[in-house]
Amino acid sequence: MRLNLNADLGESFGPWRMGDDAGLLEVVNSANVACGQHAGDPLVMRRTVIAASGQGVEIGAHPGYADLQGFGRRPMQLSDEELAASLQYQIGALAGIATACGATLSHVKPHGALNNLACEDDAVARTVVAAVAACRPDLILLAPVFSELARAARQAGQPVALEVFADRAYTASGHLVPRRLPGAVHEASETCVRQVLGMLEAGGVLTIDGDVLPCDFQSVCVHGDTAHAVRTARDVRAAVLAAGHELVALSDTLPPR
Prior knowledge:
Elements: E1 2-9, H1 21-25, E2 30-34, H2 42-54, E3 58-62, H3 80-100, E4 105-108, H4 112-120, H5 122-135, E5 140-144, H6 148-156, E6 160-165, H7 189-202, E7 204-206, E8 212-214, E9 219-222, H8 229-242, E10 246-247
Parallel strand pairs: 1-2, 1-9, 1-10, 2-3, 3-4, 4-5, 5-6, 6-9
Antiparallel strand pairs: 7-8
Helix pairs in contact: 2-3, 3-5, 4-5, 5-6, 7-8
């Protein structure tokens, strides 16, 4: 199976540092770069783009709610117009930096509370997809399996890659267990590796109830803000390759249009 490994990066801000971006860029195929609203700043964005480009890692925009203090994980009430404008502002900012650095964007992946809402709310999902398409109709939307966001992208003809998470637990309906609940985030890299290999073997998402929800997926995410992120990414990469799968760029997981 051709599979992509992605991580959320560029989430430092000014003198405050989050994650080991350099370590992750040695491992992943695709980087989702924070766009300065939930995390990141112009200099961090520029440095992350340059570092990713230097490692041959695909660059994607990772827009979220304008909520630095809450890291974009707190829901916000925005009109469709406000949300579209915010998304286009963030995607455009990263695209501009990428162009200035001789790089280009391959994809968009919404962050945090915005992503959670777009996964469940059809109207928000359609707003997100339309905003991305207006920026560039060939941008791949990286969307969770079983999400309204993925469905809206397919309906609109926007390229979409389906994502599962190595380090998050799944509910019986195939959505992520809310972070406020015990066991929502896997605390050990070994647990993450077992989950990824289990999903590949079962051909679907493994739930906290022990069930399998069959689905296709093209990408596996490792969150960059966990303490064991680099080790998890390395271990997942090694295990996936040892199991006979191929790790490729996100664009190489999709059929030709």
